[in-house]
Specification:
Helix content is 39%, strand content 17%. It is α/β, with parallel strands linked by helices. It has two domains: 3-179 and 222-246, NAD(P)-binding Rossmann-like Domain (Rossmann fold, 3-Layer(aba) Sandwich); 184-221 and 251-284 and 301-315, UDP-galactose 4-epimerase, domain 1, CATH 3.90.25.10. The strands form four sheets. Strands 3-2-1-4-5-6-11 form a seven-stranded parallel beta sheet, sandwiched between helices. Strands 7-10 form a two-stranded parallel ribbon. A two-stranded parallel sheet has the order 8-13. Strand 5, helix 5 (148-167) and strand 6 form a beta-alpha-beta unit. Helix 1 (12-23) crosses helix 7, helix 4 (87-107) packs parallel to helix 5 (148-167) and helix 6 packs across helix 8. The N and C termini lie far apart (44 Å).
């Protein structure tokens, strides 16, 4: 039985990861500021505390773990990341967490540690054409992310790599591309586009318009959470360091995303475009490197994941209205 540590285990991806690791028969300690919001944690041990506090990090990294997954960060959807109002918190909180975790993990002789970076590190100048974004791993430099969230993620990537070079640790780095699924934020201001659109469609009557930020022609790809976990655990247990993209190559416009969700719901839904934070014009995962090195690619369509997510959010909407 492996001893595993999941930091950020109260969050969306972290809570799903704990469930996955337990199903494999591992002993799991989860850590977060909060318990998972929508389901009981599956962790054997769950510690509530602040990873910005080195004393707390020493308490929870109190032994050598076989696998550490560092998912904890100050983050949220476009309404949180791109307004500019939260930049100082985003950079300070996330960088402090990573500095503490790496320092103490090294002192406990932890070797294998996974870090969840983000597609937000990619340069804005390569993502101006919504039809042809460039997001291959080697395109990260010269760096020019479109948000301070992206700059912090890029700094932390380099921090993990430096600990690998200088201290013999074995970091594994993935750049996540818009992970979605059930049991994630859907109505608290930190929800991502798929959850926000599922909520709006669930609340709408047939023939209603829903509000969409921007012109809806901005493009993205979205990866279902189970696929993300497959890529994450495969990377951690491989001999590759990364960074690797973990995302889908099925790129859609936000308008198309609305149409898919409306079709799943069986509703005719119009779009009312309003001003709002939209991020880069185009982004899509480039999976050539991870397919070549790890043989990983998503197995299901975007629609399959959206059907599961919409079903769950529709239940939440019904329970809350």
């Amino acid at each position: 039985m492996k001893k595993t540590l999941v930091l950020g285990a109260g969050g969306f991806i972290g809570s799903h990861l704990v469930k996955r690791l337990k199903s494999e028969g591992n002993w799991v300690r989860g850590v977060d500021l909060k318990f998972p919001r929508f389901a009981e944690t599956h962790a054997d041990d769950f510690a509530i505390g602040d990873l910005r506090d080195p004393a707390f990090v020493r308490e929870i990294i109190d032994q050598r773990f076989d696998e550490v997954y560092q998912l904890a960060a100050d983050m949220g959807g476009a309404g949180y990341i791109f307004t500019g109002e939260n930049d100082a918190n985003v950079m300070h909180n996330s960088a402090t967490i990573n500095l503490n975790v790496l320092d103490i993990a090294y002192k406990r002789n932890v070797k294998r540690i996974f870090y969840s970076s983000s597609a937000c590190i990619y340069p804005e100048y390569n993502q101006l054409d919504p039809d042809n974004p460039k997001c291959s791993e080697d395109s990260a430099y010269p760096a020019a992310p479109d948000s301070e969230y992206g700059w912090e993620k890029l700094f932390s990537e380099r921090l993990y790599l430096a600990y690998g070079r200088n201290h013999g640790m074995e970091p594994r780095i993935a750049r996540y591309h818009n992970i979605f699924g059930p049991e994630g934020s859907w109505n608290d201001g930190k929800e991502k586009a798929p959850a926000a659109i599922c909520r709006k469609v669930a609340l709408a009557k047939g023939g209603d318009d829903i509000e969409i930020w921007g012109d809806g022609k901005q493009t993205r790809s979205f990866l279902y959470v189970d696929e993300c976990l497959n890529g994450t655990t495969r990377l951690l247990r491989s001999s590759e360091t990364g960074p690797f993209n973990i995302g889908s190559e099925e790129m859609v416009t936000i308008n198309q995303l609305v149409d898919i969700v409306a079709d799943i719901a069986g509703k005719k839904i119009g779009k009312h475009h309003i001003s709002g934070p939209t991020g880069v014009r185009g982004r899509n995962s480039d999976n050539r490197l991870i397919e070549e090195k790890l043989g990983w690619s998503p197995s299901d369509s975007l629609r399959t994941g959206l059907e599961k997510t919409y079903g769950w959010i529709e239940q939440q909407v019904r329970a809350n209205h």
